[in-house]
Specification:
Shape: flat
Structural class: alpha+beta
Order of helices and strands: EHEEE
Distance between the termini: 26 Å
Oligomer: single chain
């Protein structure tokens, strides 16, 4: 694991149990994204070796979202100054 510049890398995995029709899905998608980007409601389940695992219950959708967050270091050779 490379360590030099601290950045947050967020990977959000969503477990979906059922889908509706396309119109309902589109409305739900927008609502779901707003809910996921809101920092409220995330519960940290575990932190190990700098990696945190959190979950969030999505109301009215019977879904649980998972978020994996890790600080990473990017060496100077990997990015350029514009």
């Amino acid at each position: 694991m490379i360590r030099s510049i601290q950045k947050y890398k967020i990977l959000i995995l969503i477990l979906i149990s059922s889908y509706g029709n396309a119109e309902i899905k589109d409305n739900r998608t927008e609502e779901l994204l707003k809910t996921l980007y809101n920092n409220e409601g995330w519960v940290v389940d575990n932190i190990k070796e700098g990696i945190s695992l959190s979950r969030k219950t999505i109301k009215n959708m019977e879904l649980t979202a998972l978020m994996v967050r890790q600080k990473i270091i990017i060496p100077k050779e990997m990015y350029r100054v514009l």
